[in-house]
Design a protein that fits this description.
Length: 613
């Protein structure tokens, strides 16, 4: 009986063994390390573009430094899928007769493989003609014809150009959007392609529908904000021709009031609104009272605590009041009250009145400020803001006698007034907000000090900054920063205020030095700041594990005492590395850096919040 049981079990064991063993046989080629991927015959698209299409990835220059990353292994199934991906890509780009094969170069000793994709593109499909046929609602083709004339220069597919699926899709959107934003929200577009060998004829058949105008506006969800205040933010008026972009602009204007959690602005396109389009605005108001408490620690500001209290509907309507308090080593106290007036004096503009009292502690000085600002911020476009700010303050400066003698020309003004106006322009396309991986940030500010109220200092100050973020691949981000500044006394003044000068070094500057350690100093070694400033940073950001990421960086720059004194032969350099930990309350940053090309090589450690830039 026992022998019979064994006899029955043996075949089952053999089958299980074979099933377990076959995957090992099939996966034998997968044990090869995919060292490199090459492309030949790709005349139209660079290898960098094609590598983004496929899922197989060879080693890179940076991968050898990421010791915690596993090697990329060759996979036969992935290879065939990559060929299909490349064929699909080329066909959507107009190369319908593309041919792709692969060449393998295996190094048995090093156990690696190099894959070369051999591409024969052949001739692409060329656009022969682009034709339009209009079917207006009332038989009048003149208004629609004028729209076609305006649309044609904006199209991506033109006669003689290569046909691309993406361009075709975008051109359809351009046509629909242009008609929708010109009074024809009921437009219907039918397309047809007539392909002959390597040529294509494109046909757009447009049924415009009726010419429409904006109708009545219905607002719901506003419990405490009067509808009249909301209607002042409308980017259109009754009987204006319908324009979808104006609805989007209206949504942005209402949301900019700062009192709503949710804003929806939609056109009611149904059979009952044929020529006149009603507009529906749905809102959800924000809580009237909000408090934020922050606690943290940084290498420079040490223990810090802050409180931010916001009250909506202050003195009624959309006005707000914001109380802010902060304490740290660098700011023993900082108190301010902001009175915020949205949509004043007009849409897309916000006025803020801010009295403040603060004390600052820097390596070269201490100062107590009391005063106020009046500012106007204007939304110029989706990514661009401009502002103008007038400030008036009385300062009480605490600085050493050496700094008074050497930096202020023995001008012992411990209590003085400052007043001035600052103009600024900011354009920011970087995303996402706190940890950008793509986009560009640029800013320019001009400050003119000494405007009335017996200001004791007269000067102008210019600061330009740009930051660029570029994703190298799915995991690597290349970030760069460049800043340059200038300050010069005017009205026969000989010196500039020591607290308004430029300083470099620290956790957000050249990280191989302590805070404000780069630049002019007095005979006691205390920083006294300079009037010319240049700084730049390069960072390579990469993931490590889950919420933990790392950076490799180099910083450079200097501060010079004289105006327009940018000596590029006297720049200071620092290199280092760091860790970034994403937490529910924000990014925690740890950096270690040291000067390079200098005699001293003392390491600097920095702990702070958020990215360095």
């Amino acid at each position: 009986m026992f022998k019979k049981s064994i006899k029955n079990i043996v075949p089952i064991i053999v089958i299980i063994f074979l099933l377990c063993d076959f995957p090992t046989v099939f996966a034998a080629s997968d044990n090869l390390i995919l060292k490199k991927i090459n492309f030949t015959g790709n005349k139209t698209f660079p290898a960098k573009t094609l590598k983004k299409i496929i899922q197989s990835h060879g080693g890179s220059f940076f991968s050898q430094f990421l010791f915690w990353k596993e090697d990329n292994y060759f996979n036969e199934n992935f290879l065939q899928d990559d060929i299909n991906r490349l064929v699909d890509f080329y066909q959507t780009e107009g190369f319908t007769n593309v041919r792709i094969s692969t060449l393998r170069d295996i190094d048995q000793q090093k156990n690696n493989i190099v894959i070369t994709f051999e591409i024969i593109e052949n001739n692409p499909v060329i656009v022969n003609t682009v034709n339009f046929q209009l079917l207006p609602e009332d038989g009048d083709v003149n208004p629609a014809n004028s729209l076609i004339t305006k649309i044609k220069p904006k199209l991506n597919l033109i006669t003689g150009g290569r046909f691309r699926d993406d361009y075709f899709t975008r051109d359809k959107e351009i046509i629909i959007n242009h008609f929708t934003n010109s009074g024809y929200p009921h437009i219907e577009l039918v397309t047809d392609l007539n392909v002959s060998e390597n040529n294509v004829q494109i046909f757009y058949k447009i049924k415009t529908g009726p010419y429409c105008t904006f109708g009545p506006v219905n607002i719901s969800g506003n419990r405490k904000i009067p509808s009249e205040k909301i209607k002042k933010q409308l980017a259109f008026t009754n009987n204006d021709y319908f324009n979808q972009e104006l609805l989007q602009d209206t949504q942005r204007r209402i949301f900019a009031l700062g009192v709503f959690q949710y804003v929806s602005v939609n056109a009611v396109l149904d059979s009952n609104s044929h020529h006149i389009i009603p507009i529906e605005i749905r809102l959800k108001e924000s809580p009237r009272f909000r408090t934020k408490i922050g606690v943290g620690y940084g290498k420079e500001d040490k223990f810090r605590i802050s409180a931010d209290i916001l009250k909506l509907g202050f003195l009624g309507n959309t006005r707000r009041i914001n109380f802010y308090a902060r304490h740290s080593f660098l700011e023993p106290y900082n108190f301010s009250i902001k009175y915020i007036f949205p949509a004043f004096p007009g849409p897309n503009t916000t006025m803020t009145i801010e009295p403040f009292l603060k004390k600052e502690r820097e390596p070269g000085y201490k100062i107590r400020r009391i005063g106020g600002n009046v500012s106007f911020q204007k939304k110029i476009s989706t990514y661009t803001d401009g502002f103008i700010n007038y400030s008036l303050e009385q300062d009480n400066l605490f600085v050493s006698k050496q700094s008074i003698d050497e930096a202020l020309n023995k001008r012992d003004i411990s209590l003085y007034n400052k007043s001035g106006i600052t103009l600024g322009l900011i354009r920011d396309t970087s995303l996402p907000l706190f940890t950008p991986v793509k986009g560009l940030y640029t800013s320019a500010t001009l400050t003119l000090s000494g405007l009335g109220f017996q200001s004791d200092y007269h000067f102008y100050r210019i600061l330009l900054e740009t930051r660029k973020y570029h994703r190298l691949n799915n995991s690597l981000v290349w970030a760069t920063k460049f800043k340059i500044g200038l300050i010069e006394p005017t009205h026969l003044d000989e010196v500039t205020p020591i607290e308004e000068r430029f300083y470099a070094g620290g956790s957000n500057s050249i990280r191989g030095w302590r805070r404000s350690d780069i630049g002019p100093k007095n005979s006691n070694g205390e920083p006294i700041g300079g009037n010319s400033y240049l700084e730049s940073s390069l960072e390579l950001r990469y993931p490590i594990w889950q919420k933990l990421s790392g950076v490799l960086f180099m910083d450079l720059g200097n501060v010079w005492s004289k105006k327009f004194d940018y000596n590029l032969y006297k720049l200071h350099y620092a290199a280092g590395t760091g860790l970034r930990l994403s937490t529910p309350i924000g990014l925690i940053r740890f950096d270690v850096s040291a000067p390079v090309f200098e005699r001293k090589h003392k390491l600097q450690f920095h702990i702070s919040a958020g990215q360095a830039f």
